[in-house]
Design goal:
Layout (H helix, E strand, L loop, with lengths): L1 H33 L8 H32 L6 H12 L14 H34 L2
Helix pairs in contact: 1-2, 1-4, 2-3, 2-4
Length: about 140
């Protein structure tokens, strides 16, 4: 049990670092775009800007899930990387189909991942809201 807690804690820290990097990248890019009003002048352009921000955050999340999946594969909790990645994404999103089930010795680790996923999705939502507010405030000045 302690090894799962240790691995889960390390993976949580790695996840936070990756997500912080994605957040920083997304918000720096958004700030650069926001200072060029011609790029956000129409509703379609604003939607595209937000779409890019969502894509940046999605890529960070996918990388995070892939790292968790890699750990499942490394510890032989799941037989192939494809299944490990699938299980990881399903766990990370707390969807939990149940078609792939971990052995008892690794179940606690998957619950750490699910809890991390809830935190990360809340964080991502906050970043997107910040992005939307940032664009809206910039436009209200014109």
């Amino acid at each position: 049990m302690m090894i799962q807690i240790l691995i889960g804690s390390v993976l949580l820290i790695i996840t936070v670092v990756i997500h912080a990097a994605g957040t920083s990248t997304g918000l720096r890019w958004l700030d650069a775009i926001r200072n060029k009003p011609q790029y956000i002048a129409t509703a379609t352009r604003r939607a595209l800007v937000v779409g890019w921000l969502v894509l940046i955050m999605f890529i960070a999340t996918l990388l995070e899930a892939a790292i968790w999946g890699l750990m499942y594969k490394v510890f032989y909790a799941v037989p192939s990387f494809e299944k490990a990645l699938y299980f990881s994404i399903v766990t990370y999103t707390t969807l939990g189909y149940g078609d792939i089930v971990l052995d008892e010795q690794w179940r606690l680790l998957s619950s750490f991942q699910a809890a991390t996923g809830v935190i990360i999705f809340g964080w991502t939502t906050a970043v997107i809201i910040i992005g939307l507010n940032s664009i809206s405030k910039k436009l209200s000045k014109f």
